[in-house]
Design goal:
Length: about 260
């Protein structure tokens, strides 16, 4: 699972699974669905910060804020993904209604709004998935030819940062390169402070990338693929599983 701060909380496929008419609507009305997903992410971040702000101070976590927890620790669980998906769809249909004043669009907007309330309540009951030592998604690495003997063709590579307890963050968006009579050098971007090292994944298609390194590569180290790829092993990480569940107290209305 990715961290909330990694972005891409849900995908277009997640949205179309909930509403098969989405892409036709977006095309007809000129709506940028990706932008609505970004707006939904911003709104959820505000909500999550408010929820976490309800927590009481925790000993030993003063540097992380009054509540001792941070939105940077939040892991995207299935119910959080659903909340974001429904919020994105509500914003799409709200935009469509404001443009056309079409009652059908208003009905879909209101239906998704009701489902958002249910998803929110389910999230409160289930709690927030949290990581003790969050590892952010890696940036796309830089690929260059290097001395070596890989078969000629196109190669794809990605990477993941790993913290000191072995937790692997979400993999980077893959890079690709066409090689002829050479090897492959993979250069990571700047390491987050928490990184103890990184893993590299290479393949001839994005679907077939497998881990190539044994021990962790150090944060400042490059990886050179000299010859044939490892053909058996783990693929890129989708991110960290929650370390614990953060339950959020409900506010009691006065009066």
């Amino acid at each position: 699972m990715a961290l909330f701060i990694d972005g891409d909380v849900s995908s277009i496929d997640d949205l179309t699974a909930q509403d098969s008419q989405l892409l036709d609507l977006a095309s007809a009305e000129g709506i940028d669905v990706s932008r609505k997903m970004g707006l939904a992410e911003n709104e959820l971040r505000i909500e999550l910060e408010a929820l976490l702000g309800r927590m009481l101070p925790s000993d030993g976590f003063a540097s992380m804020g009054a509540s001792g927890v941070s939105v940077n620790q939040v892991v995207v669980t299935p119910i959080l993904k659903l909340w974001h998906t429904l919020k994105s769809l509500e914003l799409v249909y709200a935009d469509a209604y404001q443009s056309q004043l079409n009652d059908r669009y208003a009905g879909k907007r209101d239906a998704f709004r009701e489902r958002i309330k249910d998803a929110y309540e389910r999230l409160l009951r289930a709690g927030l998935g949290m990581s003790w030592n969050p590892v952010p998604r890696a940036a796309t690495p830089t690929l260059t030819p290097a001395p070596g003997s890989l078969l000629d063709g196109r190669y794809y590579a990605t990477m993941c940062w790993v913290n000191g307890t072995g937790d692997e963050g979400a993999s980077a968006v893959p890079a690709n390169i066409d090689l002829t009579a050479s090897g492959l050098m993979v250069v990571p971007g700047p390491a987050p402070a928490i990184a103890a090292g990184w893993n590299v994944y290479v393949g001839t298609t994005p679907e077939k990338m497998l881990r190539q390194n044994g021990p962790l590569s150090s944060p400042g180290q490059t990886w050179v693929q000299l010859g044939a790829l490892v053909t058996d092993g783990p693929g890129p990480s989708g991110g960290q599983a929650p370390s614990y569940t953060q339950y959020v107290p409900r506010l009691i209305q006065r009066g």
